Amino acid sequence: MSTHRNAPREIVVVGNGIAGLTACDTLRAEGFDGRITVIGDETVAPYSRPALSKALLRDGDDLSSHLLPEATHGADERRGVAAVGLDVDRQRVRLADGDEVPYDALVIATGTRARRLGPPGGSDEYTVRTLADALALRARLASRPSVVVVGGGPLGMEIASGAVGAGCATTLVAKGMPLAAQLGAWLATPFHDAARAQGLTIVTTGAAEVVTRDGASVVALGDGTVIEAEVIVTAIGDAPNVEWLATSGLLTGGALVVDRRGLVRPTIAAAGDVAAFPHAGRVARVPLWTSAIDQAKVSAAALLKPDAPELAFQQYFWTEAFGLSLKAIGPTPVVGEPEIVEGTGRQGVLRWRQQDGSATAAALDYRLPIPKLRRLTAHRL
Q: For a Cys staple, 117 with which of 93, 210, 213, 367, CB 3.0–4.6 Å?
């Protein structure tokens, strides 16, 4: 490790998801041989969150799709205890069990939690954010209940696909064509058609909420329509876990904002879904798996090396639902018809060129190595 004055010897990583895990691995790869302490509110080892909705709901008796290789970073792990406060001046992280953990440098990777439509603490509304969430929903779907999923984004469609695959009569409530807001109409249409062909009922509405009627939870739409089902699942976005930082002085308008190297302060980095970072002319969170990994690599290195490189961010998105798969690199949603690079418009490699010379490339239900897909997004001279 390249050393400089006041090089850290005690680094604390708050958050034991993929961003926290990647930060620990990066610190070791960069030569840090001091003490790392990882604090996480879940009791389990880090796991693949995308697998929860893509594979775990439909994998039969196989419960291994979410497992990651065992960590090799040698950190002291404090599982099952949440961080509840941060004293920046004293460089201490306060834990829910009353303990305080000192640090020389800090990585904040506390992620997000699922937003809910129903009242706080309501037990009738399922979400899929944690492993426990996914296992609970998987167990409930085993008896083939009727299901309503609220949310037409990737997570909502993946959950609906899992419910249909489990043999459940399933309704999806969305503001428009599912996936269109995230991907654009061209890429969303094949998923919409496949979902309908497999029996998914799609209801479009401008507003929806989970309310109690006659002692049971139902989904009430803006036009007064009520949808009843034995299981209600909401997939309406996430909220960053920043409440524990409320008195830390690190938040900007309620957001945890980092610079292009993932730093909030010279000795405090943040990465993953919790962090808002500058990209594409704005500052925003990008709650994607690969984004969390890329951010964690850059921010961990920045804690050790003043000359560490800035984040070179390129969005990578993938989803699987209703027997179709999509991998896309570059800005979305895309507009208009694509150039067909390989295959066809419904099973092939597609590209959308932007006026600034950049591009978005997508492999729709088509096998293509990610490096090759990425090369298709190179700027045109």
A: 210
Q: H or E segment at 77?
A: strand 76-79
Run means of pLDDT, 10 residues per run, the chain, 381 residues: 65 97 97 97 92 78 78 95 98 98 98 90 84 94 96 97 96 97 96 98 94 89 94 96 98 97 98 95 94 98 94 93 96 94 95 88 95 86 42
Q: Tell me which residue of 77, 67, 75 sits closest to 43, measured CA to CA.
A: 77
Alpha-carbon distance of 74 to 52, in angstroms, equals: 26
Buried b (16+ CB within 10 A) or exposed e, 241-278: bbebbeebebbeeebbbbbebbbbeebbbbbbbbbbbe
Measured CA to CA, the distance from residue 163 to residue 138 in angstroms comes to: 9
Q: Are 287 and 35 in contact (CB under 8 A)?
A: no
Least Cα distance to 287 among 70, 11, 42, 17 occurs for 17
Sheet holding 263-265: strands in order across? 76-79, 35-40, 10-14, 105-108, 268-270, 263-265
Peptide bond preceding 333 in cis form (omega within 30 of 0): yes
Give me 286's structure tokens.
Answer: 């990008």
Q: Which of 9, 8, 50 is nearest to 321 (CA)?
A: 50
Question: Measured between alpha carbons, how far is 248 from 261 in angstroms, rounded to an integer?
Answer: 20
116: CB partners within 8 A, 6+ apart: 122, 125, 127, 210, 234, 236
Q: What is the distance, to the nearest Å, from the Cα of residue 188 to the centroid of all Cα atoms in its chain?
A: 20
Non-local CB neighbours of 294 within 8 Å, separated by 6+ positions: 311, 313
What pTM value is reported for the model?
Answer: 0.93
The count of other CB atoms within 10 Å of the CB of residue 54 is 24
Q: How far apart are CA 220 and CA 217, in angstroms?
A: 9
